[in-house]
């Protein structure tokens, strides 16, 4: 009869040999795995903290504007763009600051802020909004010739097609090309919902362009 302890001794020896060959790799793998989990949790926590802080700054920015303190509001907006550019609040702050700049007739700053939003915004709607407003700022600043090229780079206008076409039509009016403006305004109307109350304004723009 075979001594069971002999069999156990062989298993122990085999386990020792296996550990000699693979022990370091096993430990390294465990450390790496644990490190990855810890690192991911830390990164996630850091991102959540940044997002919460950015949200608070954005809320404070809006509060300051609501209380009639645009300078303080602009300071909070600038902090969002400088310190939290990867959050959605930063791009929205850029849109906000651009509006303040337009109201202050500082079109150069408005352009810079809108270009920043186009480059840094994470969601398509904010990018489209920034680009369309940038087109309007360029027209107001006498740089209407830049608008068609700015918009031609957009491959998917989505639900913003009518707005893109309208602002491009405005740029052709500014250039004195009313025939081209009429064509583009018509495209803007065609892209707009039949139920939209905005159709009346577009129709007025189209009629004015056709009359010239």
Give the rounded overall mean pLDDT: 85
- Rg measurement, Å: 30 Å
Beta-strand content: under 5%
Overall number of structural domains: 2
Order of helices and strands: HHHHHHHHH
Bulk shape: elongated
For the largest beta-sheet, the strand count, sense and barrel status come to: none
Q: Which regions are unreliable across 5 or more consecutive residues at pLDDT < 50?
A: 36-47
CATH superfamily membership of the largest domain: Tetratricopeptide repeat domain
What structural class should be given to the helix and strand makeup? mainly alpha
* Total of helices: 9
According to DSSP, the number of beta strands is 0
What is the CATH architecture annotation of the largest domain? Alpha Horseshoe
What does this structure look like?
With 212 residues, the chain is mostly helical. The model is unreliable at 36-47 (pLDDT under 50). The chain has two domains: 9-141, Alpha Horseshoe (Serine Threonine Protein Phosphatase 5, Tetratricopeptide repeat), CATH 1.25.40.10; 150-212. The protein contains nine helices and no strands. The N and C termini lie far apart (113 Å).
